[in-house]
Amino acid sequence: MDLRERVVAAVKQDGMSRHQAAARFGVAISTAINWVKRFDESGSVMPGKMGGYRPKKLSGEQADWLRRRCGEGPFTLRGLVKELHAERGLIVDYRSVWEFVHAEGLTHKKRR
Questions:
Q1: What is the pLDDT of residue 25?
Q2: Which of 33, 12, 13 shows the shortest CA–CA distance to 22?
């Protein structure tokens, strides 16, 4: 935080260019530009939040449908992805479906 504040102060108070401030404090030019831009937009040099919680797409009604579908008969994960998109309008990837099916213990064993 201290370095961010000093770079922004050099640009805003001392009248340095962003390039000069970057050279003076030993940071990349793009970094100095981004810090000053952040300060101009938000009034703070605090870094933005990274990550965060994102609710799963396969929950609630979608999860209930998927459980019922897996109980109806044979399925493949790629087939379930296509069915979710075609029948439910839900765009999910293979990994999401695999994680759901694995967590729920829903499997279909092929038998001869």
A1: 96
A2: 33
Give 46-87 pLDDT, tens digit per residue.
998 888 887 888 888 888 998 998 888 888 899 999 999 998
Q: Nearest to residue 76, comparing CAs of 97, 99, 62? A: 97
Q: Are 90 and 57 in contact (CB under 8 A)?
A: yes
**Cβ(6)–Cβ(25) below 8 Å:** yes
In 3D, which of 69, 77, 74 has the Cα closest to residue 102? 77
Helix ranges (H only) for the chain are 2-12, 18-25, 29-42, 61-72, 77-88, 94-104
- Phi, psi at 60, each rounded to 5°: 60, -130
Closest to 66 in 3D by CA, of 43, 42, 92: 92
What's the predicted TM-score (pTM) here? 0.51
Q: In the block, which residue shows the tokens 């008969």?
A: 73
3-state secondary structure of 91: coil
